Known about the structure:
By secondary structure, the chain is mostly helical. It has six helices and no strands.
Amino acid sequence: MNKKLAKQIVAGLASAYFLWCAYDPWQWHLIDGVNLVIHEAGHIVFYALGEFMMIAGGSLFQVLMPLLFVGYFAYQRQFYSAALVLFWVGESILNVSVYAADSLALQLPLLGGSDSMHDWNYLLSSLNMLPATAKVAGTIRVLGTLTIIGAGIAAFWFARRTYD
């Protein structure tokens, strides 16, 4: 099997998997455990910027971290690899949309238990946007889905190129 064909097969499999993630973001997906660890680390990373940014930092960091890897691969001119990691960015955004969508129902299990603060309930309440929860979460979900679609297109495009 030649290298281009192998890359196209991987691009197809990754596209199918991550489009399934976009179809049903409420299901637990393989990479969600990694997202959770990065999310929790984000609270610590953004701690010095005040309470609001510390709380927002979890969701922000879980999207920024894989985006840094995309930037690294793009800087190294490894565009196929960057496109594959972009799938992770999209799935992480979808993961954030699920958390945001739960800001009214408060049904998701939190690491700290029932006494824990729900990040998105706090954020949307602070911004007087709690009534717009569905719109905010829907917008985030669309952004994640479009990122995954873009990653799929880019992965197929760069799988056909010879320089990566």
